[in-house]
Design a protein that fits this description.
This protein has about 600 residues and is of the alpha/beta class. It folds into 3 domains: about 5-165 and about 580-590, no CATH class; about 170-335, no CATH class; about 345-565, no CATH class. Helices cover about 15% and strands about 30% of the residues. The chain is built from 6 helices and 34 strands. The strands form 7 sheets. Strands 6, 11, 14, 16, 17, 21, 23, 25, 29, 31, 32 and 33 form a 12-stranded mixed sheet that branches. It has a 7-stranded mixed sheet with strand order 20-19-18-22-24-26-30, with no helix packed on it. A hairpin with a 7-residue loop joins strand 19 and strand 20 (about 385-395). Helix 1 (about 5-10) packs parallel to helix 3 (about 50-75). The longest helix is centred in the N-terminal third of the chain and has 26 residues, at about 50-75. The chain starts with a helix and ends with a strand.
Length: about 600
């Protein structure tokens, strides 16, 4: 049995460990190491040197497995550098010549004459991992990865082989599409009634959005604490166009994946996915390597897990995806039910510390990118800073642009998307870029028009992070926020002059507490296609399209494609999930061995 297969299996399994599981993994690692080494030592190949090479390689693999085991126990094990609890075989790097005598600690593989040693390969020009400053000295700032070198030796004749292993945390960027909950954000529930005026029977002071905030911020499933979204029901009344109150009941919004829809990349939800019953079924994932992960946090634990769990679907209307029971693979992703959840951070405040003071702004800020420069209208955070009007400045290469609130900021109003006061930390962004950069807003980030690379073939990465909404600008006329019933196409709500059409976004989008949406998605005329090449992560599923009460279409058709570079690289300082586990990303041999 080859240890590389075991390594890949361990690397894929990132669900956290109880002590029983940890001990089981350690036993398995030891047994696998012994088995592989025994097989190598008993190999009947004609050359003894060939046998020794196999023994040395298996020992090097055992070293990688041992390090991965420690990471599974303690996600911060890497930050201890070489100071972890003894015994261990973790060392600073040795160049092979200085000192002349090998200074590295080694560990024996049980039941064999082989042993291994591990070296931490520093990053960003550092010479060694520093436990007092582990991040900058060990983790590559561009890719978010760190590397070790594991060298195995057959002590019978001294043959060595070395493996370079690269580790990366589970990332929000591993997926084209990621949600915490497959329902709408509470504020958006107001759009379910034309007049927007609702009252709950049990609590007349609470409207539908207030009820949704208390009852729909949960997962689908039977777990009484986290799930039970299906059991929630609003009972009350709404006021019709004539001002007459009418009885009204409503459940939590359950967006589905529509007939014929294609998600061209990996997916993850902490919830479950609703599948349209109409043929043809949606296709989830672009290849068998695309993980289609569902965590089903609202469901009671079932052992063993249902191989087709994580999907809410009709009989005979399964999505196009590869289940564990699939006998003939299809060109789609691979379902992974009961995957480990990914918890979104609640704030972007840590990014402020990563931002140079010249790029810290407050209140509504407008930025138009142009290659390596950007034109800014706004005000810096520093006290007494003058207003900036169309000021050109360099894009901070490999840096962050941060827009903070400058006072109070009211919640987003769907029928009045421009209502936010100037004190809101809103960033209005458009243009093209030729630098790696992350833009982040303490409130909303509004895409005013295309946000694209200057040169289509370039490899620059862009991050777009908002604490609340990431919105695509769509102004309308004929919608009076004081009379919300006017905000539909039957009442003359139309696209305003200058509304962008066929918008393209090339970047990684992250809404920490709300959604990625199109302003006024519920009225106006069709806007063409919304192209996203990158990744989208959001707490709630956001709307970008609708069929209006007039029977016409509004908003955008979706065309979302995963940028596979995000598997290995990240926009600068892009946020990680909370308590994300490390995984083995790549695994290759170094020749000659060290």
């Amino acid at each position: 049995m080859r240890l590389t297969a075991a390594l890949r299996t361990l690397a894929r399994d990132e669900r956290g460990f109880t002590m029983v599981t940890v001990m089981s993994v350690m036993v398995c690692v030891t047994l696998l190491s012994i088995a592989a080494l025994s097989a190598a030592q008993g190999d009947l190949a004609p050359g003894a040197h060939d046998k020794s090479r196999k023994v040395a390689h298996a020992a090097a693999e055992a070293g990688v497995q041992n390090y991965l085991f420690h990471l599974s126990q303690d996600a911060e094990y890497w930050a201890k550098c070489t100071t972890g609890a003894a015994p261990h075989a973790v060392n600073d790097p040795w160049n092979g010549t200085s000192p002349a005598a090998d200074p590295r600690r080694w560990m024996s593989v049980p039941g064999s004459a082989a042993r291994y040693t591990i070296e931490l390969l520093p990053a960003n020009g550092a010479t060694a991992c520093d436990p007092a400053d582990a991040g900058p000295t060990m983790v590559d700032t561009e890719s978010g990865t760190f590397k070790i070198r594991s060298t195995g030796v057959d002590r019978e004749d001294g043959v060595k082989r070395s493996i370079i292993a690269t580790f990366k945390r589970r990332s929000l960027l591993d997926f084209l599409y990621l949600t915490d909950k497959e329902t709408r954000g509470p504020e958006l529930y107001a759009m379910q009634v034309p007049s927007r005026i609702t009252r709950e029977d049990a609590n007349p002071t609470r409207d539908l959005p207030g009820w949704a905030a208390a009852n729909c911020d949960r997962y689908w499933g039977d777990d009484p604490s986290l799930g039970s979204r299906a059991a929630q029901l609003f009972r009350g009344e709404y006021v019709n166009d004539a001002g007459v109150a009418k009885p009204f009941t409503f459940g939590c919004i359950e967006p589905g994946f529509n007939s014929g829809e294609v998600i061209a990349g990996p997916m993850h939800t902490n919830d479950e996915l609703l599948i349209d019953c109409s043929p043809p079924p949606p296709r989830l994932g672009d290849s068998i390597d695309d993980a289609i992960e569902t965590s089903s946090l609202g469901q009671s634990t079932v052992t063993p897990a249902d191989p087709k769990g994580g999907f809410r679907m009709c009989a005979g209307s399964e999505p196009v995806v590869n289940f564990s029971t699939t006998t003939t693979p299809v060109m789609a992703g691979t379902s992974r039910p009961r995957s480990a959840p990914l918890q979104l951070p609640l704030t972007n405040s840590e990014l402020l510390l990563d931002t140079d003071t010249a790029y810290r702004f407050k209140g509504t800020t407008k930025i138009t990118m142009n290659g390596t420069t950007m034109r800014v209208t706004g005000r810096r955070m520093a006290a007494g800073s003058p207003a900036l009007v169309d000021v050109d400045m360099p894009i901070p290469a490999d840096g962050v642009v941060y827009v903070a609130n400058d006072g109070s900021c009211e919640a987003y109003t769907p029928v009045d998307s421009a209502a936010a006061p100037e004190t809101c930390g809103n960033l209005e962004l458009q243009g093209d870029y030729s630098a790696n950069v992350t833009f982040t807003a303490e409130n909303d980030l509004v895409v005013m028009d295309d946000v694209k690379r200057t040169s289509p073939g370039s490899t620059f990465l862009l991050g777009l992070i908002a604490t609340n909404y990431v919105r695509v600008h769509h102004p309308v006329t004929g919608c009076d926020p004081a009379v919300p019933v006017t905000c539909n196409s039957l009442r003359g709500c139309t696209n305003a002059a200058g509304t962008p059409t066929n918008v393209s976004i090339e970047g990684a989008i992250l809404s920490l507490t709300r959604s990625f949406i199109v302003d006024n998605w519920f009225c106006g005329a069709k806007l063409g296609t919304l192209d996203v090449y990158g990744a989208i992560a959001q707490r709630f599923r956001g709307p970008v399209y609708s069929v209006t009460p007039a029977g016409t279409e509004a908003g955008y058709d979706k065309s979302y494609e995963y940028d596979s570079r995000l598997r290995y690289r990240s926009p600068p300082h892009f946020l990680d999930p909370i308590n994300a586990q490390w995984r083995l990303q790549t695994f290759s041999e170094q020749v000659p061995a060290r």
